[in-house]
Amino acid sequence: MEGNMELEKIQRELAGQKLDGWLFFDHHRRDPLAYHVLGLANRMATRRWYYFIPAQGQPAGLEHRIERGMLASLPGEKLPYSSWTEQVAGLRTLLKGQRRVAMQYSPQCAIPYVSMVDAGTVELVRSVGVEVVSSAELIQAFEARWTPGALEMHLEAGRRVDRARASAFDLIRERTRNGAPLQELEVKRFVLDTFAQAGMVTDHGPIVGVNANASNPHYEPTDEVSSPIGRGDFVLLDMWAKLDRPGAVYYDITWTGFCGDQPSEDMRNVFAVVTGARDTAIQRVQSAVAKRQALCGYEVDDVARGFIESRGFGSYFVHRTGHSIGEEVHGNGANMDNLETHDERRVSPWTGFSIEPGVYLPEFGVRSEINMFVGDNEARVTGEIQRELVLL
Question: What pLDDT, on the 0 to 100 scale, is given for residue 42?
Fold first, then answer.
């Protein structure tokens, strides 16, 4: 929504992080985060604009003369420019007296979700005598924190998604025990219909994977690709949805089951390893929050990955331990990741994320996913936790 920039809150965060200011930049809508934080209408920017918020004092902007008004909804003076040299001079004026300024930049692209500003623009800003640092923690403060209302909507979505998951397993159990035909795609459509009937929406999915398909973390049945489900099969369900309301945040889970009464020892063993890693990660978060210790996303990944590696399955855990959750299923806060990225962002109060370790063997794959919410003095799992393989 246009015009809802939280200037006082931004300046408090800048002071708390000992930064001189936050410099926003865009060209051809490269940086959606800038529009979110500033509350700008997401109109096309065919020329470069800059907007600087100092830790103290009045913000100011720099915009091209043929696109005057791009920053009209924001407070402060807007300097005009046309030529390249005038742009550089305007940038010098905008940043005069500043030393350390945050931008949507991540050193060595360690956190690609924040790395929206191109290298050349970072070089340009540095050329006027300013040190550029990452805005990753600032972005988390404004893009990843839930409101009390968002938490309540997440918890309600969790109750509805958990019911949908149980109903999907009931469908699989009934069909496979009666010997009736069933396809992965039919279960996927059943889940989507259940979501719609429950007043929920999702961006895509769910994942319904049988046997080797369960070993593909981003497998999804389609009209062209779908496998039958029958007795003796291993089944993975990964589903995510949110209430169809403004400001709602997602709930995202993965459960696994076996179509029969006697899963193999390999299935039982891998399930125990994965859920053990999940529980170890949960305990790490809860312990740090209880002791008021700082905790970074990569540290959560380390304990889950270490548990799986100690059981000999490290090479089969091929993705991060968890991701931020928000109004998008993959949010803009800290991820539990020291594999795909080295996420040094803090696990912050009033944020949510998944814990979802997995082991993916050629024959089948196990992932166990729960959601966690960190409050001011607590960390909790927000829905049901799978303790045993579901026997279908």
Answer: 74
Structure tokens at 149: 């209302």
Whether residue 65 sits in one domain with residue 36: yes
Structural domain range at position 380: 148-391
What are 137-168's pLDDT values in tens digits?
Answer: 999 999 999 999 999 999 999 999 999 999 99
**Angle 84-94/119-127 helices, nearest 10 degrees?**
70
Q: Is the pLDDT of residue 250 over 50?
A: yes
User: Which of 294, 374, 291 has the alpha carbon at shortest distance from 333?
Assistant: 374
Amino acid letter, residue 261? D
User: What is the model's pLDDT at position 1?
Assistant: 38
- Which of 94, 127, 143 terminates a domain? The answer is 143
| Per-residue H/E/C for 116-150 | CCCHHHHHHHHHCCCEEEECHHHHHHHHCCCCHHH
Residues 118 and 177 occupy one common structural domain: no
Residue 357 located in a structural domain: yes
Structure tokens at 177: 């025990």
Residues 343 and 362 in one domain: yes
CA 103 to CA 37: how far, in whole Å? 12
pLDDT in tens, 273-306: 999 999 999 999 999 999 999 999 999 999 999 9
Confidence at residue 253, expressed as pLDDT on a 0 to 100 scale: 98
pLDDT in tens, 58-90: 999 999 999 999 999 999 999 999 999 999 999
Q: Which tens digit of pLDDT belongs to each residue from 177-204?
A: 999 999 999 999 999 999 999 999 999 9
Structural domains counted in the chain: 2
Same domain for 152 and 74: no
* 283 and 161 part of one domain: yes
Q: Tell whether 213 and 324 lie within a shared domain.
A: yes
Positive or negative CA dihedral for 30, 32, 37, 40? positive
β-pair type (200-201, 234-243): antiparallel
Residues 139 and 164 in one domain: no
Domain endpoint, select from 143, 167, 183: 143
Exposure letters 305-327 (e unless 16+ CB within 10 A, then b): bebbeebebeebbebbbbbbbbb
Global pTM value: 0.92
Cβ-based neighbours of 376, under 8 Å, separated by 6 or more:
349, 350
- Take residue 152 and report the two structure tokens written for it: 């309540």
Are both 171 and 124 inside the same structural domain?
Answer: no
